[in-house]
Amino acid sequence: MSKQKTPEVRRKKLRTRKMMRRRQFFLVSLLLCTFVAVLVGGLALLAAIDSGNINLSLPTGRVKETEAPTEPASDVAKDPNSSAEARVNAWMETLTLEQKVAQLFIVKPEGISYEDDIKEMTTAMCKRLDTYPAGGIIFYRNNIQDETQIKKFLADINTYYRSKNLPLPFLAIDEEGGQIAPIASNAAFKVTKAESLARLGASGDPSKAYESGKTIGTYLKALGFNLDYAPNANVLTNPENAEVKAASFGADANMVTSMSQSFTTGLKEAGIIASVKNFPGEGGAEGSTEENLAPSNRTANDMMSTDMAPFKEAARSGVPMITGSHVSVKSIVGKNTPADLSSKMINDILRNQFGFHGVVSTDAMDKGAILNHYESDTAAIEAVNAGNDIILQPGDYKKAYTAVLEAVKSGKITQAKLDASVKKILTLKAEYLYG
pTM (2 decimals)? Predict the structure, then answer.
């Protein structure tokens, strides 16, 4: 038989139970407060990370006590005060693979929208550029009417590219002087006409070539252009080559070198990119690349000492761009491959032997030398792998673009090659188009 509990014992047990309940209530309250605090802190942390005020990347060196928030790459690219290097790095970070591939192409307006004689931004052009935002556009006589029209056309193109947060395009022309001058030979333009390269060469005065380059560059810049496929640095080693004869400084390699360098300097001082053409030299070619393959039967030694001399000096002096040629030089390449599709010519000689680190453009890929022997897709891939950075006006832009894109995806063109070309192109744009 159990003993009955006294009143004092019952009171003690009751007090004990109350104290335990208080402790339990306190612990539960403490846990709830802690949970709420952690939850609120976590949400605040996430918000800070999302806004960019906190950077969770691992430090690569000594961590500074305070760091300014990192500006988004897209904002850096658009900021007019960004340095050229920062702008290029931002572009390389934000451009998609498809947009990078498009940077390799300079095309005619008609090559974008398949309309005829385009003189303004059309709906078809805009729609096609949405998918194939070419790195540049080149204009010919049929695209140019007068000063008001071409200024608006070029300005509208720039506006379109800005609206898509894309790097501004090369706006190119082939304005050399003499009769090869879509602007100066048009009576609607009141500009100073530059002499032909042949007359400049005959003068023997490089300062005149400089003045011509400066004159041409000044009015091109005022109209909105930024790239001139000039000067022509072909040495006239075949006097029967009528096509080159009309657009060459002459037959003396030293004079052609001096004249082309002076002309290039004039363009540069006016703010225009010069593309010295046509490596390795078309002066000794038999026939015209406009119609078909144009072989040069000159020896490798003759080509190196004479035809290529102006381009070797151009590479050494750091010209911004060199344009290739479809001329075939069997004595060097070993077969009738167009020079600008030959890795021997572009990679081995122009880049490695001459040390050229600038942008290399093909000649126009819609010439007979290419169209009669290559499909647009094949020619584009070969051009990139040969060492070119820019494919100029392919016969079929969409086909060429798609082929290069698929070649990068499959590894036929390496990502490293694509990135290297795009970076050179963007560096040139950052220097001339955003200065």
Answer: 0.83
